Please model this.
Amino acid sequence: MWLTNEAPYIFNKRGVYYFSRRVPVDLKCHYTLPRIVFSLRTKSFKVAKSKVTSLAAKLDEDWLTLRWRTTDDPFRRFLVERSAGATIVSSAPLMSEAKNLYVQLSNVSAYGTN
Model:
């Protein structure tokens, strides 16, 4: 196995070119193996080089998407932290109170009584 400086992520094994790229440490939890390796199914260096260029770009894009998805919101640090024990007091009626009010009002409108 040998990698070239001319074409990174390529190695030749028994005349066939392969793609090989290490998974970044921060994304290892998304992958089963620490390295992505597969055959490019070509014996031509020129074809392998063009395939690797597009594959590496796609992989970089996928990794960027994974990083954005797993990273916390960058604006989170500007938010006011709320304590876990704090409760918000609402002036809205409880569901049981709303139900009773609804029943009273529907009876009034159905029978025309006050």
